[in-house]
Amino acid sequence: MTFVLSIVIGLLVLSLLVFVHELGHFILAKACKFKVLAFAIGFGKPLFKWTRGETEYRINAIPFGGYVAMAGSETEVDEKGNPVKPKEDIVGAGDASYPIWQRALVAIAGPLANFVFAILALWCAFIYGIERPTFMDSSKIGIVMKNSPADSAGFLAGDSVVAINSEPVVSWEQLELRLAHQLPSYDFTVLRGGEQIGLTLKLERTGARLPKNPTGGLHPARYPPVVGRIMPKSSAERILEEGDTLVAINGTAVNSFDQFAMLMREYNAESGPVSVDIKRRGAAMNVLVIPTYDSTQNRYLIGLEPAKEAMKTVRYGPVAALGPTWSKTWEYTTMIFDVLGKLISGEVSTKQLAGPLNIIPVSGFMAFQGLSNILNFMALISVNLAVLNLLPLVITDGGLLMFLLIEAIRKKPLSEESQAAINKVFLALFIALFLYVTFNDLQRMPDIFRWLK
């Protein structure tokens, strides 16, 4: 049920972003007195349509994309000179009698609307308040998975990441963003015992659409090493107390409850009692606990649960929110160009590309995480739409701007035959790309479904 609801919400989110984009085109076209024949969300056969004034409004069957169709001046009369319904010309040229700068404004209005929406969404998110776990504000490593690339590289639980590839890192969020590109290797600077040391993390290239180990075995100190609950009739009952701080297990220092749980997974029946160093009400103590076997989890347990994950809500006033809003918008914009550059150079695999089948359920999932999270995610997708539509790919707004630039240089537009031929080539490339990212999405679906269950 959650998966289906995520799909529905995701479709609404994507439709809203498309609506914002096309609304930008529509408003500028109307402001420039262009004759707008149709304003459509989606492609294909109209499911609903109505006419107001000269414009027909449509909601089409295929919810990906949309368009604003304007009148082309060359087909306003038939071969006998009789008036006919003008040809629909998807945003870009419109009536060639209008100045090039006006047509360019109409073309750029869609991406601009997406940028404005992203800024407003982030601004509202920062004002509403962004709830986040406190561990995200720290770059301290809580767990290094055994036999992982990070383990092989020499990382230790308790290390604090200072920089990655010479770029400063002060939070776990920044660490994940740096590693999101999935480069073959990263040069880390970590703080250990008051000394900065260099380590190189080499990520595994498995060819998977979703990396199984995107951080190379590094995990944050998500839960503090504090006992939150003791299970009834467990080994720890009457030995440990709620609120005890776990200091070490069998002589190994514990930096987080996550690390404690990982160390406990290595226990076997021949290991004997577990020596646990704790702090209780400020006093240091050592206790011995004999784990009991749990057949449902197929491992030995002592019956502890962590204290609740520490959370905090960061809120800004309307004016104070402008700074982080602009910073986050700039980060999202430059991140796209960085990824595009690495795709071209081959540093980032094309298998990391995602399409609507991935974006839609993830959008729906983010909606369940709270208002600030969905606003932040919508801002990211909206910036993506804006930037990608400004690239000179012919079928995008950037491509239309390129045609207008050629027209300005030549003092006349390219012939309809030339434009049609170029559009056919790029449309074929676009379809090929769409099919490729859809194939990637289908490969990811089992993982996505597990996340959303």
Walk me through the structure.
Helix content is 42%, strand content 24%. The strands form 7 sheets. A 4-stranded antiparallel beta sheet has the order 7-6-8-9. The chain has a 4-stranded antiparallel beta sheet with strand order 13-12-14-15, covered by helices on one side. Strands 1-2-3 form a 3-stranded antiparallel beta sheet. It contains 10 helices and 19 strands. With 453 residues, it is α+β, with helices and mostly antiparallel strands.
Distance between the termini: 8 Å
Shape: elongated
Helical content band: 40-55%
The number of distinct helices, counting runs of at least 4 residues, comes to: 10
Q: Mean pLDDT, rounded to whole units?
A: 80
Say how many strands there are: 19
Instruction: Sketch the topology as an H/E string, one letter per element.
Output: HEEEHEEHEEHEEEEEEHEEEEEEHHHHH
Major sheet: size, sense and barrel closure? 4 strands, antiparallel
Proportion of residues in extended strands:
15-25%
- Residue stretches low in confidence (pLDDT < 50, at least 5 long) are 73-93
Order of strands across the main sheet: 7-6-8-9
Q: Tell me the radius of gyration.
A: 28 Å
User: Strand pairing plus helix content: what structural class?
Assistant: alpha+beta
